[in-house]
Amino acid sequence: MGISVEEILTADINRPARYLGNELGAVHKPWEEAEVRWVLTYPEIYEVGASNLGHIILYNILNCQPRQLCDRAYLPAPDLAAKLRSTQTPLFAVENRRPLTDFDIIGFSLSYELGATNILEMLDLAGIPLTWKDRAEFDISEIPLIFAGGQTATSNPEPYADFLDFVDLGDGEELLPEIGLVIEEGKAAGLSREALLLDLAQIPGVYVPQFYDMTEDGSVKPNRPDVPKRILRRVATPMPAYAIGLVPYIQTVHDRLKIEVRRGCTRGCRFCQPGMLTRPARDVEPEKVVEAIEQGMRATGYNEFSLLSLSCSDYLALPAVGMEIKNRLKDQNISLSLPSQRVDRFDENIANILGGNRQSGLTFAPEAGTQRMRDIVNKGLTNEELLRGVKTAFEQGWEKVKLYFMIGLPGETDADVLGIAETVRWLQQECRAKGRKTLKFNITVSNFTPKPHTPFQWHSVSTSEFKRKQELLKQVFGQIRGVKVNYTDVRISAMEDFVGRGDRRLSAVVRRAWELGAGMDAWMESLDRAFAAWENAIASSGLTWKYRQVESGEWNVMAGVEELQVGRLNVESSEQPSNLQPSNLQPNNLQPNNLQPSTLQPSTLNALDAPLPWDHIDTGIDKNWLKEDLQRALDAATVPDCSFDGCSHCGVCGIDFGHNVVIDPPQIPQFAGHFKPNTNKDQRLRVWFGKLGDMTLLGHLDLASLFERAVRRASLPIRYSGGFRANARIMIANALPLGASSSGEIVEFELTEKMPVEEFRERLVSELPEEIPVYGVEGVDLKEPAGTQLLEKAEYLIRVEVMSSVSWEDWQGWIEAIKGSKEIWWERFTKSGKKQLVNLCDRLFEFEVMEPQKPKDGEEEVAESGVVLRYVGSCLNDGTMLRPEHIIYMLDQVAQREFRLLHVHRQRLILRN
User: Fold this and answer.
1) Host H or E run for residue 58
2) Which residues, other chains included, contact 375 with Cβ-Cβ below 8 Å and sequence gap of 6+?
3) For residue 441, what are the contacts with CB-CB under 8 A and spacing of at least 6?
4) pLDDT (tens digit, 9 = 90+) per residue, 778-800?
5) Is the peptide bond before 225 cis (omega within 30 degrees of 0)?
6) pTM of the predicted structure, to 2 decimals
7) C-alpha distances in Å from residue 454, one per residue of 248, 447, 633
């Protein structure tokens, strides 16, 4: 049964368009024809979830399966969550607007350890029992199956095992359709919940926690003989065609087309969990990438696309693919963005495909400030390569570069920490040019957090040590101009470590933390409050002792070598002048080159052999290889990238996981130049349009973006402004209040070439939502002022009710009293904060109470109670306006009663002359 969303999603909800499910590309399959009904949920707010590439791909794949449909849900913002609870409305899926309990299966994407509390929040809002034990007696027709996937769920599902019926491990493109078929067969056979889960447990990549128990030594073993001892991680080939789909009507975090070019990374950074969990590396054929981008840009109307990979620079075809697309779309004001990339592969070709009028940001991740530390983590980056990449960016016009560094890595000394600041200072000094500003840097310094399935999973650092190292950097960076530095809060890092490497006992902590209000929004609003909630949850679960271990640096496999380094540095410092400033040190002077290799001590080796809560997850990486690589880290020995050099013998390549797929790069096309905006103005068209239904919940800026994308999809010859940021010349005459409907809005388009008005209308209408109707289009003289300048008045229909019993004559009397008034003063404040009195009577031109009647074609039924008032008032873009709330105030003044504004409908905008 559907939910009356219009009663919940009102204008008082912040950005209500988040929850409408009416985006371009949203799939609405017939409910009755589906045998299996999915909901894919991203336990974050819509702006994050709707822009997640994996979420979009799986949504599209599932909706391509016969007899199955897939809907979506997102974490409601606090205002909607409160309203759902106060009205006892269950959380709903956005397309079908049905409660989540109507579906067969609900999948959560878990990409962050502390995000598990959001899963509990969504289950509670949906009225679904939180644990698998509480759901065990229910058929899936009553309570859906609950599962999770994603990097965090794959690496160590144990802290969340109590809440999940099953976990999907690894890539989901092939796994989820297999799950759907088993559920379809199970439903047809009338299987019980347990029997259906047992069938699912036979699928490689499906882990059913209730069929496994945690033993005394912390390991996880099957509690029945008919399930596998270890569960295989699934591997799939990237499918770029499925990335083309949802185009949100509101701005999202990654508001662009996203195409995956390479899955997996074999660089072997020893701290990097994604690099270990996504092996082997698989390139996408360049032709498929180019085809997907070209098709996707035309289908979506985006003005930006992003090529995604854990290490984009290792996609050897990147320069050729990027240049080919850049050349093909050169005249469309399209920009390319890339995630953090290898600075050693950044060259002029990459700079050209990233640069231009819409030059995107540039991010590199050196990770460490000294060569020794970069060797310990197996970064494979030299100072010379770092300088060459940053210098190329500076020479190609970038004025700011973002760099990621990490502190607390195994074997790190204070010299290595100071090396971060000295590396940045050195790069600034080397990147100077006459007539140019000094290169600026945005620096992010994060705290090393050990992750399962990595060589550094056995090492952690105390919070006190993190704080001390951060303070070291703050003192030195305070002396460097043109640098902005952000530090990760050490409390978040400790909590990530505690949960991420925890066992099933952590489920009680996660649940109690959620009960105490530790959702993801809590970290954003108040770190102190969120951290206190987690600490209280840990205490109530009897695991404070365990958390104190993490805070104190539970494991330190490099204690011996660190003591050696500190001793050497103490000797050096006693020989140096006490007033030596870090600025006198160069990066190469910070290398403790005399350190001898270390070996793991017997006590450490015993700890490495101890069972881990995630040992039953078969990622393909041999645990013995992780130990060996940890020893190599102690020796500061590097391992080559097996995609391009010899095999590192990690254990992945074989029948179960496949092999690295590296495609030779095609020839790089000749660069055709950056976009040059066509500023010729050959035609201006004025369009009258409406804003009805769900579209009334779309804000003004989002409406402007909707028009620009529609113009792009329709291939209309829109004119762009000149300057660094070329903007499409689309001018909406006036912003309509959120929640208000209209049948008389105006927008103007400037074109670079003339075209028939009717053809323009047809092409534009074909790309607009039905609830943005176009009523008329006319050509406007190019010399005439724009509609924004000509706008003078607006006519409104507003439905108002009074909080007491009144007659029709009362209304007419109040209207006449207002029309007969010379002065009704309204107090407002200017942008500078000065108080100003405005006579509202000067802004009112027509005012009447309307007889009850049905709405005309194109108008909305605004409400069922109250009366409709029509007025014409000032509407100038300099702020001289008579708003509906002004009318309510005027009624209050003359009637001395309480009035309530129910709905606003703008009939028309009136232009001068």
Assistant:
1) helix 53-63
2) 636, 637, 638
3) 400, 401, 402, 403, 424, 427, 428, 482, 483, 484
4) 999 999 999 999 999 999 999 99
5) no
6) 0.91
7) 36, 16, 12
